[in-house]
Amino acid sequence: MTDTTPYHLPxxxxxxxxxxxxxxxxxxxxxxxxxxxCPVDGYEAEKIVTTAVxxxxxxxxxxxxxxxxxxRLTLVVYDAYRPQTAVDHFVVWASDxxxxxxxxxxxxxxxxxxLLFNGYIxxxxxxxxxxxxxxxxxxxxxxxxxxxxxxxxxxxxxxxSWYSCPDISETAKQNRALLREIMLNQGFEPYDKEWWHFxxxxxxxxxxxxSFPIR
Length: 215
Description:
Keywords: Cell wall biogenesis/degradation, Dipeptidase, Hydrolase, Metal-binding, Metalloprotease, Protease, Zinc. By secondary structure, the protein is an alpha+beta fold.
């Protein structure tokens, strides 16, 4: 029997599409194109969920980006709120040294996958508090989606993804700087080891970790 009960997010959380449907979404953890190689626990739908304040801030970032580029560029969001069940899934995956099917694409420098616990995989994540977001910039209206060169793909677990990596092109450096600038302007804090990751400084749930599923 199908469960027809309406699904309601906890108070303070929203679907990003309800706040700004123009922001593109590519929910990697709901599919197979991620470092685990399968849908991650807790991601039951290809939807971006975040705290309301973050969604409103992203709406302003998007508006500024669109205005300043004459509509040529747009945000593309990969992840925001992340259930604790997903974080737990990452921990179990990183402990399984036999599962290396996504190594070449996502962590090519690590022969021992358990070393990902040193800076890449953690048992707690700011995403679980609902006010962190992983995103990039893309060319609007492109199909397939044309993401600006950033020197590494989203979620590449490698020093190439560090913001200050010297081994990327000047174009990629400029694109990373653009993304960082527009996010800083709206109250987000960057993470130096992941060019795509930002945390909203005035997050509403700084000490709470959630685990409701994304549906």
